[in-house]
Amino acid sequence: MIAILEDEENRQIAMKEVLIEIGEEYCFFDNAPEMISWLENNLEMVKLICLDHDLGPNRHKDDEIFDPGDGRNVVNFLVSKTPKCPVIIHTSNYLAAPEMISNLETNFWTVYRVFPFDNTSWVYISWFPLVKQLFSV
What CA–CA distance (Å, rounded) separates 107 from 110? Predict the structure, then answer.
């Protein structure tokens, strides 16, 4: 199982397109609270976690204002757990990424960094080759 935090639909589409080749189940989340809730019950079966940072503005959900949080919220959850699998940070937020990486590595998680560029080109050029490499080990 691959758990992916990504709020941009075009990125999700590109990722789903290439993940077919891996043959591994995946689950997308567009907000941190739902991903954290899901990980509470499913972390043991996750083989890879991919995290974006910026998840957009607050939105309406169930007639209330909903804060989608950010990738640091998921990192804060993960550092309270025993490292289970590698984590790929795929955010263009140059201030948040180093903090996310440092917090995970300090708590013995294996972390990789992919830099988004050119809309979704990075998914095919950088992200997916790394995912394939991690699943071939």
Answer: 9
Helix ranges restricted to H, 4-127: 9-19, 32-42, 71-78, 96-106, 121-122
AA letter at 135: F
Token pair in block for residue 132: 């394939």
Contacts of 71 (CB under 8 A, 6+ apart): 5, 32, 51, 52, 53, 54, 55, 89, 91, 96, 100
What gap in Å lies between CA 3 and CA 38, rounded to an integer?
9
For residues 104 and 137, give the distance between their C-alpha atoms in angstroms, rounded to a whole number.
Answer: 21
- Per DSSP, 20 falls in state T
The amino acid at residue 124 is Y
How far apart are alpha carbons 77 and 33 in whole angstroms? 10
Beta-bridge partners for 131:
none
**88 has which bridge partners?**
50, 112
What's the predicted TM-score (pTM) here?
A: 0.93
Calculate mean pLDDT across residues 55-80.
86
Cβ atoms of 67 and 57 closer than 8 Å:
no
Q: What would the mean pLDDT of 102-125 be, rounded to a whole number?
A: 96
